[in-house]
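ugh ok so i messed up the first submission bc i forgot one of the chains. this is the corrected input, ALL of the components this time, i swear. 423 residues overall. if the numbers dont match what u have on ur side tell me asap before i send this to the collaborators (the ones from the other lab, u know who)
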Amino acid sequence: MEGGNIRQWLNLLVCALLLLIAEASYVPITYLQNAVAKGAVCLDGSPPAYHFDRGSGTGINSWLVAFEGGGWCNNVTTCLSRKTNRLGSSKQMAKQIAFSGIMSNRQMFNPDFYNWNRIKVRYCDGSSFTGDVEEVNPVTKLHFRGARIFAAVMEDLLAKGMKNARNAIISGCSAGGLTSVLHCDRFRALLPRGARVKCLSDAGYFINARDVTGAYHIQQYFSQVVATHGSARNLPQSCTSRLSPKLVMLFPTIFSVTYHYANLLCKRSIRLMAALNNWRDLSSPFPDPQNVVLIQIKNILAPGVADPEGHWHSCKLDINNCSPDQLDLMQGFRTEFLRALTVLGNSSYKGMFIDSCYAHCQTEMQETWLRSDSPELEKTTIAQAVADWFYERRTFHQIDCPYPCNPTCHNRVFEPQDDHQGV
Ligand SMILES: *[C@@H]1O[C@H](CO)[C@@H](O)[C@H](O)[C@H]1NC(C)=O
Ligand SMILES: *[C@@H]1O[C@H](CO)[C@@H](O)[C@H](O)[C@H]1NC(C)=O
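and heres the new structure output, hopefully the right one now
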């Protein structure tokens, strides 16, 4: 009797373990060797790479192309420091990565996209795939070729069947979320006319805010990115004709946007900038002058490098460590962020899921994408909201109440090594 019970328990345990293991599947890397001849290479000159899990059944003509994030490099020094890691060299990339959340191949974890063709494009150029400089400095041997990588990846995927796409999403988180928005129109233009094509930006919303010194360091930072990588002519034309390139990089992006969203932003961002210029300096919670102010649409905060004095260090890792003053400043930032959003306007083809969880990148993690306890707004998970928006089943625009009101949040405790620019 007792033996039977133990066996039952063991069976249950094994099942639970298998379930846990299967929550993510591992997908091997593919190097685009023939991209090298076109000069489409990582910072160190190595070939670009992606991970591709083929679609099946009803998903055979549906494509999800997710771009990896990982901040930016704004000058030769910061770009050189990437040459020896995965953000600048495919030689340093893991040979396989886990696909979960929106990337999952299991129906129970990802009911609307599990059988699509799912691609994760690795990030190794440091410019959100916008760079294109022909010359290679003989001393540093750095290649600034992000835009060529984008083009080479697209050419490859179109040949592998994406040219027949009926449904397609370009997505990404953080710097990858910016990639999604900056390349939104271009992606749309590559696909068949009748296809349903949308752009999803997870935590890719960067507001143009001052730091404590009152300077717009983020603006300066992005202008350095654009200058270093020669990005100007690869930013959406509809934007650059109206604004200087450095401002284009700052276009607020939305969690989920339609393909022509980037265009709309151009028109509207002028007003947004004006709104922010009138903003009295709240002294932002990001005291580091070189910090990229990473106010993510679904985060309160996940900013860049630590402040020199370390006042924000422990707070940034774990929101439970923040002082009341720090929480106040963060709430002030949230208010500013929401004000910036209202300037963007609102229409049924745009979707928004703005939670107040202390998190970064929630679409590619099973626990935040779809699980019995994952974050919800109006009883709706991120997985459901994205699918409803994509298939136009209903309009979804939800903004959470301020932290810490939402009990469904998974507030992350970040590791010190996570606490660097843009990750
Ligand atoms: C490069 O950029 C970083 C980060 O903004 C900054 O700390 C550094 O001083 C810059 N280096 C040069 C040589 O401009
Ligand atoms: C957008 O419009 C919807 C109704 O279509 C409304 O429920 C929602 O609150 C609006 N969102 C914003 C940010 O104005």
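quick check: The mean pLDDT is 75. that seems consistent at least. The chain has 13 helices and twelve strands.
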